[in-house]
Amino acid sequence: MVRVIEARYVKDYVVWLRFNDDTEGEVDLQEELHGEVFEPLRNKKLFRSVAVHPDWYTIAWPNGADLAPEFLHAAVKARLRKRSGRPRPRRPSRGQARVGAGRDG
After folding, report:
1. Is residue 52 within 8 Å of 5, Cβ to Cβ?
2. In sequence order, what DSSP letters do the residues of 31-92 get, joined into one string?
3. Which residue of 8, 34, 40, 94 has the fewest CB atoms within a 10 Å radius of its CB?
4. Distances (CA, A) of 101 to 25, 58, 92, 104
């Protein structure tokens, strides 16, 4: 069972989370703030009050809003996969010849 063990407000509607399987990362929840219980969280002061609920093992807010830990875990994992899929800057290899570095100088 996946559980949120630590949560921290980052900025805007972004929360950093750590799970019991050592997965950790940020998730932007702005697109999830719709519906009767989530609309009040558009108030950033209320959103910043996010905390790990000790009985539910997920994040929750004082107004009773909470999100399933499985959903949050999947969102963090997807963001991590997306970030790791970016091409890395190309570096010249050690054996690559430099321009003008021929044998004759």
Report:
1. yes
2. GG--STTTGGGGSHHHHTT-EEETTTTEEE-TTS-B--HHHHHHHHHHHHHHHHTSPPPP--
3. 94
4. 45, 60, 15, 8
CATH superfamily of 4-79: NE0471-like N-terminal domain (3.30.2020.10)
| Tokens representing residue 86 in the block | 């970016």
Q: How is residue 88 written in tokens?
A: 């890395």
Domain boundaries of the chain, sorted by first residue: 4-79
Q: How far is the first Cα of the chain from the last one, in angstroms, to the nearest whole number?
A: 65
Token reading at 99: 């321009």
Q: Which residues contact 57 (CB under 8 A, 6 or more apart)?
A: 1, 3, 4, 5, 20, 69
